[in-house]
Amino acid sequence: MPRQPGSQPPRPPSPHHGTSPTAAASSPPQGGSVWWAANHRCHHKFCDVDGSARDPHSPQLDGAANAFAFLSEHGTVKEEFTPRHCDGVAARVLDTFSALPCVVELCAMRALFGTAGLWASFTSGYLSQLLTLWFNVVNHATEEGEEAAPGAAPGAAPGAAPELSRAKACRATDVRSALSPNLFFECLNRLLWVGVLCGEGTHAHHHAYGSLAHRPGVDLPFHIFIRPLLALGLVWDPKLAGRDKASKVH
């Protein structure tokens, strides 16, 4: 985002600046933030292109179940895609022991609120993980005759011009597919409205503007997390251009 006249010059990124966000991002019940960021950046670049060797979770190539459970096959950090601006010793330690925050939370909830607290913490954690994984599957056109949204996704790094073959290959869509392999996944489909509140109601737009700080729709993470960091001066120059180019949020 262009700076206003008289504002301070851009500051170079430092691994230390990413330590606090990395600590916060290690709280969900999934891999660490460095691992997740690297895999997701790889998914954006090789979206639906050349199989599980590159795209970690492509329902088009690997099937819905394998794309949903990609954590078992992609457990290591894809170093080529590691975000250097938040990669440091502290971030790597947090990433390696990413299960620890979840264990601490479960123990604390059990100690403070008993069995009910443990149940609430565990249930909210696993539902959050399942919805995150399923969201990345169901918002890629996989059914016969379904089409990905026009201009859905550059198959290159955010901000770079997409390679034509990759842009055509990526099947991210702003319209949720009718995918429901069984009753379990059909139940998850009933909860996908949560994604709309988190700025993930338009997945093709998410691919086309992968580094956007404020996504279309309500986008609670922006207001709860990014906006306070902006106010404190801990992050700066957020990428906002393109937010208005989304189709209707579903």
UniProtKB/TrEMBL annotation:
Region Disordered: start and end of each range? 1-31
The superkingdom listed in its UniProt entry is Eukaryota
Name it.
Fatty acid desaturase domain-containing protein
